Amino acid sequence: MAKSPDKIFESLDFTSLPEKSLVSLLKRDDLRMKEIEVWEHVLKWGLAQNSTLTSDPVTWTDDDFKIMENSLQYYFESEPINNFLSPRNWVDKVEVKSGFACRNCRKEYEFKLLLRGRRDGFTPDKFHSLCDNKPKTVTFIKVKGTNEILGGYNPLIWETSKSYGETKDSFIFSFKYKNGLFKDGILSNVKGINCALCDGQSYGPSFGNGDLILYGVNQTSDYNRIYCKQISYEKKIRDAEDKFLIDDYEVFQIIKL
């Protein structure tokens, strides 16, 4: 089983696992399972712990969603970057759990994970090799030592050219995660469309002329300059303008079905 952790989900007994054991299993690097399958198993486990809930989340009340959240409290606390907001989003099989997701997105879109920092690394080179030339991506960043999650949406493609991407449809955002909930959300639309996106060989997913920047001293070095300074977008998404570190980041491509 240790060599094939995904095999445990073929057994009905996985729903009897303690929550912490389930989370440890799901966080294994050798778990050969798509993101969407992970969410389906998490939902199945949660339903097994709450026999009063129906199997169709569409019929759930606010109290029902709260019951499910409480059952999965350790899961949400251990991986907040992957669990934006409440089960209202992930029961709809939306892999980007954000406040911008709609309840019927599963019928129209696929959210494909392109990069995860803790899995793929934190270098500009790895970002560009996995994410370049793929339109419509959304990035989530977990700030180290705080309860902040930052991110942005790029309707165009990322590339290595030393230039700015021009668009009126990009935006950046931030949330604060506390006690199992995401609060104090900020959504900032682009105002300087000529500098909406920041491309370059030494940059990760970067927005504006400083609004959300991930930069490395070279392509193969980890990001060493990460900061937010409000210039090209309507609102600042972080109070402090000094550099900070990150625990993880993820980039998803949004694909219309």
TrEMBL record:
Pfam family of the protein (one): TLD
Limits of the TLDc domain: 93-255
PROSITE patterns for this protein: TLDC
Superkingdom of origin: Eukaryota
Residues that span the membrane, as ranges: none
UniProt source species: Rhizophagus irregularis (strain DAOM 197198w)
Coiled-coil annotated residue ranges, if any: none
Organism classification: Eukaryota, Fungi, Fungi incertae sedis, Mucoromycota, Glomeromycotina
Protein name (Swiss-Prot/TrEMBL): TLDc domain-containing protein
UniProt cross-references to InterPro entries, sorted A to Z: BACK (IPR011705), TLDc_dom (IPR006571)
